[in-house]
Amino acid sequence: MAGHSKFKNIMHRKGAQDKKRSAMFSKLSREITVAAKMGMPDPDMNPRLRLAVNAAKAQSMPKDNIQRAIDKAAAAGGENYEEVRYEGYGPGGVAIIVEALTDNRNRTATNVRTAFSKNGGNLGASGAVSHGFDRMGLITYPAAAGDAEKVFEAALEAGAEDVASSEDEHEIWTAMDALHEVAKALEATLGEAESAKLAWKPQTTVEMDETNAATLLKLVDTLEDDDDVQTVWGNYEVSDAVMEKLG
Hints:
3 domains
C-alpha cells in the first residue's frame, strides 16, 4: 500500500466505512462549493468543479446533494472556506502533506498539530516536506476498466506521463496543467474515471515496518476523520505482509 493510495483496501478500516460515508459526502460538498465559488457554477465551464462533481458521482453522492453544494456557492452569507496545506513528519520519519478546506484556520491547525503529536509525528513549517514530492494530476480507474496494457496505451495516447496498475486499480499520472485535458481524452476510451484530482507524488518512498505502520495508519485515520481535512498524502510504502499482520 503506497502513501498516495486511497486506503480503500485496508482491512482494518472496513468496518468504519459506513460511518465515514456521511463525513465523505460533507467533504465532497465542501470541495464542490469552493470550486463553484472560484469559477463558473457550470461544470462544463469550470474544470475544477467538473472534477469535484465527478468525484462525488463516483462515490454515489445523490444529485440533489451535488446541486445543493453548487447552489451554496452563490448564496449570500454562505461559509467562506480557504485552502490550507500542512506539512510534517510521521512515524519512521515519513513525509506527510495534509490538504484542508477550512472556515477557521486556528481550529484546523490545532487539530492537525494534535493529530501529529499524539501519533508519533510532528508538524513542520510550510515547505518542510513538499520539496520531496511532485505536484501532478492523478486519474484513477478501477481494475475493471481494462487490463494494464489497454490502460497504458489509452494513457499514452491521451498525453499522460506515467501509469501504475495493480490488481485493484489503475493510477494515471499527468502534468499538473494537463489533468483536465487528459481526463477528458481518457473518458472517450475508458469511460468516466473513479477520480481525477491534483496530487502529491513522492519522489522516493520509505518502507514501513510493522510498529511504525500501525502508528502511521492511526495518524492518517485521525487526520482523515477531521471534517476540515480533504486529503492526506505521504511518501510511505506498507507491504501486503505488514498489512496482513495489522489486519
